[in-house]
Amino acid sequence: MLSKPPGIEDIFPDRIGIRNLITDTARDVFRLYNYREIIIPVMEFTEVFVRGLGTDTDIVTKEMFTFEDRGGRSLTLRPEGTASVVRAYVENGEYNRLATCKLFYAGPMFRAERPQKGRLRQFNQFGAELFGGGDPYFDFEIIAMMDDIAKRTGIDDYTLLINSIGCPACRPDFVKALTEYYTGMKHLLCRDCASRLERNPLRLLDCKQDSCQPLKKDSPKITSFLCDGCRNHHESVKAYLSKSAAAFTEDHLLVRGLDYYTRTTFEFVATRLGGQNAFAAGGRYDNLVETFGGKPTPAVGFAAGIERMEILLEERPVPAAGIDLFLVHTGGKTLERAVSLCSMLRREGYSTDLDPGTKGFKSQFKKADREGALLAIVIGEDELSAGTCTVKDLKSGEQTTVRTDVIVGHIYNKLGR
Ligand code: HAM
Asked: Ligand 1 pocket, 263 CB below 6 A?
């Protein structure tokens, strides 16, 4: 038997209901906020992610699926969407001329992480990116939009964490203070953190190792180092949020694992998710468009992990996945009548199925039940000669004989549509 690679899932029909609920809700909310869809490629030249996410990030150093094409060029399966959307935005002369450009996307992402519940190697995100919006209102808009999506899908037990990681003007002073603080306790750091101290000290705050947690307690706080511009921006984002339905908690340790962020960072976390507790995250990235060769363009965005949202919605009743009608026949001419009725009912908009291979009522009714049909429509020899069919409500068991030429009206009345 052939099997799938680790950390990669098949999604069978029983999970499709909840998946569609999440993506349909996200699409509805994106439309309400005037975001339009962009479809980005599944693979890019590796340089897009190296330059976009930062050479020292975990994603770039150890999690990318990278390979050479036949021409010897290095390609990578996208580990996230932001770098691709920025590349597309900069490359496209029409959209990058708009004063503000609001885009959303959805699809699979690939990271070679150690698989566990909620952490996959192929997972799905939806996300949004807004270009040309430096005002703190736009940070609020992005956060509020994700908050709306979470609430509308039925996720309510979560915390919204926010922080500011400053800008290239004020962050170096903070990083210096952080380096000094941690240098004094270098011998207590885990192996990864010892190397973070050399390469990217900000990331020390992101360490998940138990032994490193107590060390963070007295670490310098970025909020004491913010320049006036960053402080005012941060205060303003919080003021917008305070007036909205999105309750937030400040977390000065929230630095995020990607290098492109400036100022606002945020995460939606739920304790029910365990170790991988963020189901959506994002922030502002005012310098990335320029890094990709575009003109200076402030930007902010977020992405949500669809599989993690599914875990949070595990107990939510899923919209019924069954069909409307199942046609039951006894073979021969009754099957012919059933096939033509089936085509007609599908044209009328009813999901309809039949089984041509069996004549026994019992097995056909069993199948109708298995398919979650609401009504069975029976055509036996008697019905065929009388020009009727028997409509059976599979929940109540109620049966009615109906003339075939008025069957659509009858179904309409029964199903209310
Ligand atoms: P991220 O925090 O790397 O941010 O990913 C966003 C979300 O994707 C996470 O909160 C999580 O729910 C989900 N996720 C990430 N990795 C995995 C995985 N291995 N398995 C399952 N789910 C996962 C970004 O990707 C940024 N591009 C967000 C952003 C957009 N920032 C600005 N704009």
From this structure: no
